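[job 4471] stage=fold_predict status=RUNNING
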Amino acid sequence: MNETSVVPLAAPSVDGAVNGTVVLDGSSRLTVRVGPYPRMTQGDEVQLRWDTGVLRTSLIDRRAVRADEVGGGTVFTVGEPAPGTVRVSYLVRDPDGGWRSSPALTLTIRR
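[job 4471] inference complete, writing structure tokens
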């Protein structure tokens, strides 16, 4: 068993979330943060999953970890989130091709 399979990823965080709820304040964007994780390396692919349970309002975004993000985390922006319940999680693919998944953060989005 390798080291990355032993250390689990943390759930992502969403700026402005309090007790599992985000109240949109007129802004049409939310910031999702993926914190640093064990063995974070430049070139890792981080894939955000914003799952509303409705295909047209769900989102998958991905990006490669930049050198300046190693040890600090990766930030995603979700534009115009729909009110309702959402499950936010992410996958990490390391340069060797192995995938790890985070636990989901369940939020209620309100206007």
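[job 4471] summary: The chain is about 5% helix and 45% strand.
[job 4471] exit 0
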